[in-house]
Amino acid sequence: MRLLIVSGSQRAQSQSAKVAKYMSSVATGYSEVSHIELCRFDLPFWDGEPESKSGEGNPWTMISYKVRRADALILITPEWGGMASPLLKNFLLMCDNQDTAHKPALLVSVVSGISGAYPIAELRMNALKNNKLVALPDHLIIRNVTEVLNTNASLASASLDGEQEIECKFESKREIDLRARIDYSLHMLHQYSGALVEIRNRHDSTPYPKQQEYCYGM
């Protein structure tokens, strides 16, 4: 099974990308884990026409290939003004439900303060209707994100002879609990990944009569 992590910040070297890289490093059980940082690609804003996804130099061909191959997705968005990022919403608009339908998605909100719930509510309410991604009941909100999931902190402390360096690793209870929660969420995503493979296989092998009439959500 393959996992695709999509970070939707519009800034390079973002906290969303940092969270994505951490989750990539601890996701287990997948034959392949890929990370797409949307701000590094010059994606056009989708105008509803198929032609906007194609064209010379358009990176969507590569991105859609990764989406199509994935068995599960992690969607990471910063909270800006209480909303999910335009880049992530544009990505979801461009996704073809032939590539995303009946695949599990773990929703992750990243925020520098203590909020972060609004992007999750927004994505659950109106971002998954037509692409038919299946959002897990559990989600993650990474609050005060600059303070967590960082490289282990260290202090250089001189010994009596002034030559020895001592590395001190700091992990608060909050950090430990957060990492444990991430591990749990990844475990559940892997469980859904395996279960929904069977659903997609049945959907292909024994389709509902005229199922294309219901290709859009209600």
From TrEMBL:
Gene3D superfamilies with a match to the protein in the record: 3.40.50.360
Keyword Flavoprotein listed: yes
Keyword terms: Flavoprotein, FMN
Residue ranges annotated for the NADPH-dependent FMN reductase-like domain, each copy included: 1-144
Residue stretches spanning the membrane: none
GO molecular function: FMN binding; oxidoreductase activity
GO annotations of cellular component type: cytosol
Pfam families, A to Z: FMN_red (PF03358)
The name this protein goes by in its record: NADPH-dependent FMN reductase
